[in-house]
């Protein structure tokens, strides 16, 4: 499988799209080596209205268009914490199922993860372990 990714940088108004395709092992390296703490510390030097995003990386599977994003923040104890965002096609009941099902892209989020756990879930995404991700996001 191949992936693209984009970066939400706190000081950039526009999302940065890399425009290149990557393999799963490259995605994990990008996420693990990203300067999460440094990007968050930068935000502390600016007014809230000057910050456009929390530091985030959004990885998209090229063929399915499913995506998995990791967003960093500091919790109340000033510890690094991540939220996870999973966008994928899902069968949705139309009018309580009276009109059948329709496939629709849905986005779910989960909060309060450390980097190691976030990378485990990113690995699930890059290796196609959709069952495990569905359990997490259900």
Helices, strands, pairings?
Elements: E1 2-8, E2 16-17, E3 22-23, H1 24-33, H2 36-43, E4 56-61, E5 67-74, E6 80-93, E7 101-113, H3 115-126, H4 130-136
Antiparallel strand pairs: 1-2, 1-3, 1-4, 4-5, 5-6, 6-7
Helix pairs in contact: 1-3
Task: Describe it.
With 138 residues, the protein is α+β, with helices and mostly antiparallel strands. The chain contains four helices and seven strands. Helices cover 27% and strands 38% of the residues. Strands 1, 2, 3, 4, 5, 6 and 7 form a seven-stranded antiparallel beta sheet that branches. Helix 1 runs antiparallel to helix 3. The mean pLDDT is 93.
Short description:
Helices cover 27% and strands 38% of the residues.
Main sheet attributes: strand count, strand direction, barrel closure: 7 strands, antiparallel
Distance between the termini: 24 Å
Number of strands: 7
Q: Output the radius of gyration.
A: 16 Å
Overall geometry:
globular
Q: Which series of helices and strands comes N to C?
A: EEEHHEEEEHH
Model regions low in confidence, pLDDT < 50 over at least 5 residues: none
Q: Note the total helix count.
A: 4
Helix content: 25-40%
Helix-strand makeup class: alpha+beta
Residues in β-strands, percent: 35-45%
Tell me, rounded to a whole number, the average pLDDT: 93
Write a concise keyword list for the protein shown above:
alpha+beta; 138 residues; globular; 27% helix; seven-stranded antiparallel sheet
């Amino acid at each position: 499988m191949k992936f693209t990714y984009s970066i939400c940088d706190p000081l950039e108004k526009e999302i940065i799209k890399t425009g290149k395709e990557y393999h799963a092992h490259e995605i994990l390296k990008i996420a693990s080596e990203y300067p999460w703490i440094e990007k968050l510390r930068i935000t502390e030097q600016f007014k809230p209205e000057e910050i456009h995003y929390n530091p985030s990386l959004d990885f998209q599977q090229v063929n399915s268009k499913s995506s998995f994003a990791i967003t960093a923040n500091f919790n109340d104890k000033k510890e690094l914490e991540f939220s996870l965002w999973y966008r994928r096609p899902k069968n949705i009941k139309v009018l309580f199922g009276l009109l059948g099902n329709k496939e629709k892209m849905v986005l779910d989020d989960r909060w309060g993860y450390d980097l190691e756990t976030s990378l485990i879930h990113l690995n699930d995404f890059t290796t196609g372990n959709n069952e495990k991700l569905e359990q997490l996001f259900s």
